[in-house]
Amino acid sequence: MDNKTTLQLGYVDLHSHTQASDGMNTPAENVQLAAEAGLSALAITDHDTVAGVAEALAAGERHGITVVPGVEISTMEDGKDIHILGYYMNIEDPVFLERLAGLRQIRDTRNEMILEKLRGLGVEITMEDVLKQLGRELLPDESIGRPHMADTLVAKGYAEDMRDAFNKYLAQDAAAYVSPPRIRPQEAAQWIIEAGGVPVMAHPGIYGDDALVARILGESALAGLEVYHSDHSPEDEQRYLELAEQRELIVTGGSDYHGERQGKVFHGALGSKRVPADVLTRLLERASSQA
């Protein structure tokens, strides 16, 4: 059976996170979970880094799982955080890696701003507390994210669980939320294309502004839309499916799995949102047409 035929079989979860960003599991553990969930393919899409992809590719060979090199880039448009997924980039492209490193520096700045705002609210946690709660050394090219801070807020009694920590302090418009200047979605899409990949807008339902979603899609080189996501309702999925079809975008989907914290899976269990694996053929064809 050739590779193209293999890519047309089964199902794929195109959105998962590992310890390379703010997930709980190693890349290899995510691949093992994909095999246990009956998937034929899995994308590793860590925030502003591709550091977990190589380990996942090796694990994919062992488990018979196709691993899709991916990334999730943090951007901003009209004051809203917008996330852009990228698939099939050259993960060794030096320009792309340098650009991602710059984004992680912004993330580090944001983390210090959040901690300062928390302290102003009487919530006494430090980066040392966050790293202690992590319980391990940071990996190369790994950065601390809001879920790590949420873990610490729960451990120190400032929140009941992960969702409570986000609702009180860390989500957009919550008490300690901050968002330093970031690149625009259009620029992130271009970075992904220049690295040989295919850019897709992540979880449009989270942004609460379909007019903004439509405008970004119209002003950028985005090739796809994440229609199926753990935080989308059936009504969201139908609406975004129609939008994707109207604009002839590639329809993608994924769980946005981050692992289990305080006994709860965040956002959804790996493989709980999946799309037919033949979407990989469309992504690869798009990547080839841009080369």
Automatic annotation (TrEMBL):
GO terms for molecular function: 5'-3' DNA exonuclease activity; 5'-3' RNA exonuclease activity. SMART domains: POLIIIAc (SM00481). The lineage of its organism: Bacteria, Bacillati, Bacillota, Bacilli, Bacillales. CDD domains: PHP_HisPPase_AMP. It comes from the Bacteria. Pfam families: PHP. It comes from Paenibacillus bovis. This is Phosphatase. PANTHER family: EXONUCLEASE, POLYMERASE_HISTIDINOL PHOSPHATASE N-TERMINAL DOMAIN-CONTAINING PROTEIN. InterPro entries: PHP_dom (IPR004013), PHP_domain (IPR052018), Pol/His_phosphatase_N (IPR003141), Pol/histidinol_Pase-like (IPR016195). Residues 12-77 form the Polymerase/histidinol phosphatase N-terminal domain.
